[in-house]
Specification:
kinase activity, transferase, four-stranded antiparallel β-sheet, single chain, 357 residues, 2 domains, seven-stranded mixed barrel
Length: 357
């Protein structure tokens, strides 16, 4: 497992760890086996900031790019007793043809003190696109729960602006297409919506993403925990997952989540409008059926789970938050496999009724 060493003045480290709701970046140094660079570092996440084991956002300063990336995220995975749910999810999404960030586990040292096992994630930004030879395009982050593709907040209050809940991460040619997407979703009558949505959204990729969220059962994934990419070549929006530690049978706090907690139709306004169209409902059912047969199975996922587990296990004792949790950690393999069996069976049982409605 690769080691990351961050050197930061103790006074600055103490400041960001005590003032957890500040968004200020501090200067630091990062050293790996192959690189030495100057960075800016800050805490990341929402409720994650309150945990003893913090997550960090790193921006490369000098040099500006490392392996084609300008930013990375170091996730503590504090509430996930397996430490693998995020990575397992992103790898799963990639396997079904959905854009997802690359991830790898590392050991993080800060001022020569081991802070434990972290998941390093690449940022979903313009460099992500360039590294994959994808067309440029604006990128929007779903910053909070108001990013539900609706005119109203989850509390049923009218939003102040259409773009409430979103932050533009990368602006390509002063793009305003997000507003157009939200107008189509929320104001067009059924037939006009069906005719127009294909001109602004890659519907097939969205439905494939929906199938991925429904399988992994990320409750927040429908109104949060995603980013939108407006492909300048196709003129269509694509969607990518983010923060998937609350999946595979547990919620974002690490608590057990029943396998049938999320219905086969999922949530959010856009999903509801698409699935109200018979042809898209059938197409979604076909995608889901294929995934349940070929990807979301114990046979396919078990060796992947075992590989991740075996790569992490030798380093559990180095994590001060996990060194006494080896039995729990080991038990998570079977826990996730039980979830896959039960969730697959549940979704298969709902496929016929999904298509017939």
């Amino acid at each position: 497992m690769e080691k990351y060493f961050i050197e930061i003045p103790e006074s600055e480290l103490l400041r960001i760890q005590q003032n957890i709701w500040d968004h200020e970046y501090v200067d630091a140094k990062l050293k790996t086996a192959n690189q030495k660079c100057s960075i800016k570092v800050a805490l990341r996440g929402n409720q994650l900031r309150e945990h003893k084991k913090k997550s960090y956002h790193i921006i490369f300063d000098k040099p500006y790019l490392i392996y084609g990336q300008h930013e990375i995220h170091l996730n503590a995975e504090y509430n996930d007793p397996s430490l693998m749910r995020n990575k397992l999810s992103f790898d799963f999404f990639e396997s079904i043809g959905v854009l997802a960030p690359h991830s790898i586990h590392i050991l993080l040292y800060i001022n020569n003190v081991c802070h434990g096992i972290y998941l390093k994630l690449e940022s979903f930004d313009q460099f992500y696109l360039r590294n994959r030879n994808l067309p440029e395009g604006s990128i929007y982050y779903a910053t909070n729960y108001d990013a539900n593709f609706s005119l109203y907040t989850p509390e049923k209050k009218l939003k102040l602006t259409l773009e409430d809940g979103y932050t533009k991460k990368y602006d390509f040619q002063k793009d305003s297409s997000l507003k157009r997407l939200l107008i189509v979703i929320n104001t067009f009558p059924k037939e006009e919506f069906i005719d127009e949505i294909i001109n602004i959204l890659d519907v097939e990729k969205y439905l494939m993403w929906l199938a991925g969220v429904v399988c992994t059962q990320n409750f927040d994934g429908f109104i949060h925990n995603y980013a939108l990419y407006h492909n300048s070549k196709t003129g269509l929006f694509e969607i990518t997952p983010w923060d998937y530690d609350g999946t595979w049978g547990r919620d974002l706090h690490g608590r057990p989540l029943e396998h049938d907690y999320i219905p086969i139709e999922g949530y959010n306004t856009l999903t509801a409008r698409l699935l109200a169209c018979p042809k898209y409902r059938v197409l979604y059912g076909e995608f889901l059926h294929q995934i349940l047969q070929t990807q979301f199975t114990v046979q396919v996922q078990k060796p992947l789970i075992e590989k991740i587990h075996h790569s992490i296990r030798p380093y559990i004792h180095k994590d001060p938050n996990l060194k006494n949790e080896l039995e729990t950690f080991d038990g998570e393999q079977e826990y996730i496999l039980r979830f896959i069996r039960a969730r697959n069976k549940y979704l298969v049982s709902k496929l016929d009724s999904l298509i017939k409605l």
